[in-house]
Amino acid sequence: MVADLTSRRGVPDATVARLPEYLRALTALTERGVTSVSSEELAAAAGVSSAKLRKDLSHLGSYGVRGVGYDVEHLAYEIARELGLTQDWPVVIVGMGNLGRALADYSGFIKGGFRVVGLLDRDPALVGQDIAGLAVRHMDDLAAVASEHSVSIGVIATPAASAQDVCDALVDTGIRAVLNFAPCMLSVPDGVDTRRVDLSTELQILAFHSQRRMLDVAAEGVAGDEAAASAPTPVGAAR
Amino acid sequence: MVADLTSRRGVPDATVARLPEYLRALTALTERGVTSVSSEELAAAAGVSSAKLRKDLSHLGSYGVRGVGYDVEHLAYEIARELGLTQDWPVVIVGMGNLGRALADYSGFIKGGFRVVGLLDRDPALVGQDIAGLAVRHMDDLAAVASEHSVSIGVIATPAASAQDVCDALVDTGIRAVLNFAPCMLSVPDGVDTRRVDLSTELQILAFHSQRRMLDVAAEGVAGDEAAASAPTPVGAAR
DNA sequence: TAGATTGTTAATCGATTAACAATC
DNA sequence: TAGATTGTTAATCGATTAACAATC
Known about the structure:
Strand order of the largest sheet of chain A: 8-5-4-9-10-11
Low-confidence stretches of chain A: 1-8, 227-239
Strand content of chain A: 15-25%
Number of domains of chain A: 3
Mean pLDDT of chain A: 88
Largest interface: A-B, 80 and 80 residues
Oligomer: homodimer
Number of helices of chain A: 8
CATH class of the largest domain in chain A: Alpha Beta
Radius of gyration of chain A: 23 Å
Distance between the termini of chain A: 47 Å
């Protein structure tokens, strides 16, 4: 019997989510000509504690040198490899509204691995237009584009109403990873990975914290009245 | 001595992050004319387990009826209130490239609370242009716009190189909540809350899972050879 | 009352933190 | 060797899950 292959050399989800930030910090250090870095310095650059950084890196292997630190270039390579960025990931973007255009343009900035090979829309008026050096193709050509370039990641930048249909079409072509910018849940078969990015959710989380901060200040004000006016700056700590 | 006012009626972060999804699911139910829902049904619509949903809701209060379920409209109201969406949150967006335009347009779709009152850019060619019904103003007018509308949330949609300067300017006007779409860390004083949305990070997390899935399939293939060809569909479960 | 479903409890799981032994 | 810093251990903290008593 084969034992639990799905969690092979399991790197915790929380760690995976931080690896891109470490990689970005290391890239910035490389650009500044820094060749070696301690966990304390790198952690500060990435906005985490050094204990957390070392714990995270320990899941990938032993790439540091005790008493010295980490070789910036080597550590960057190992993180990139762990994330799969040493491979090629052809991407299609569906939906060429403002958001789709922004994503297509932005793709030029992405370091490593990701390559936008197809832009699709179902509006005939957009088909054929050149965006970021690619001609927009019609949704009906999705299967052709996908197989032509062995597309592995699909990005949905359509309105919510079309998102599920687009997702189904992406999955039909064999795509197993979907990034969804539409404000809706997608249902996908087992074996397909989806992530959602939603402006509205992010704003709502910010609003929650802002509101709590306001209520805290109000409560502290009342408490301060009782216990004499002792706190001149009533703005509470965030998060 | 005043006891721990900052975590007043603390709702866990993990719960707060899911409230927007519950609210979206409830809104969809309202639109379909559904007036009552069980934790089981709502959980399915939001893509979580019913145990998790009930636990999350229990942090807000007791808004359900045993044996019956939840009143859709009432629960939606309570979640909206908890998130602060019953208040008005004036928002400015800085950076009117494709992404900034997309965000400005998208704002029309946002339910409750958020109101885009200012669009800013430092490019004179863009200043004065009409986007989504608002005239773009110059960055130099930020302080005026912010005080005019009591702006509480700032959105950064500029390139990474300008993001920190923009953030400092936002904080200077008294803004205490910042949503950052630029691919960089921001440093802010205590009491300022920031969140970051980054395409590149999301793609990298997808790539990690895709790569692991490929490696798992490969490993299973080898193991399958040893233990006889018993698994006809070698695609492993995602996440 | 009987059936259904919530809200809570207790157990489990995973992530974070602090401290330090290993070692360059 | 002495100083510095990693990688790991153990303790703490927070989130998830399953089960069920409370109660409509």
